[in-house]
Amino acid sequence: MIIGDVPSAYISCHHAKTPYVALDGYIGAMEEWVEAAREGNSVEDIIPVNVPATPAYAEMLASRLKFIDEQILPLLPH
């Protein structure tokens, strides 16, 4: 499970064998949501995020994802 000041998500250990892979997959899935929300596209078939899919929420999530990608992910063993 990924929780915190980001949308919660359950990442299956069948697909993510290490914490690095799980967090990297989480970032990728949430970046899909960010892109769709920025462009005003449907997020129906994307990982659920419990806020409206607006550009403002997309930017808030994008900044958190960038921090995780740059500051936390590199610390995890591959």
Q: How helix-rich are the residues, as a percent range?
A: 40-55%
N-to-C CA distance: 18 Å
Order of helices and strands: HH
Number of DSSP-assigned strands: 0
Structural class: mainly alpha
Shape, principal axes of CA atoms = globular
Overall pLDDT: 95
- Could you describe the largest sheet, including whether it forms a barrel? none
Total of DSSP H or I helical runs spanning 4+ residues: 2
| Total domain units | 1
SS strand fraction: under 5%
Tell me the radius of gyration. Answer: 12 Å
Descriptive account of the structure:
This protein is mainly α and 78 residues long. The protein has one domain. It has two helices and no strands. Helix 1 packs antiparallel against helix 2. The longest helix has 21 residues. The mean pLDDT is 95.
Gist?
The protein is mainly alpha-helical and 78 residues long. The radius of gyration is 12 Å and the shape is globular.
Descriptors:
mainly alpha, 0% strand, 50% helix
Topology:
Blueprint: H1 19-39, H2 55-72
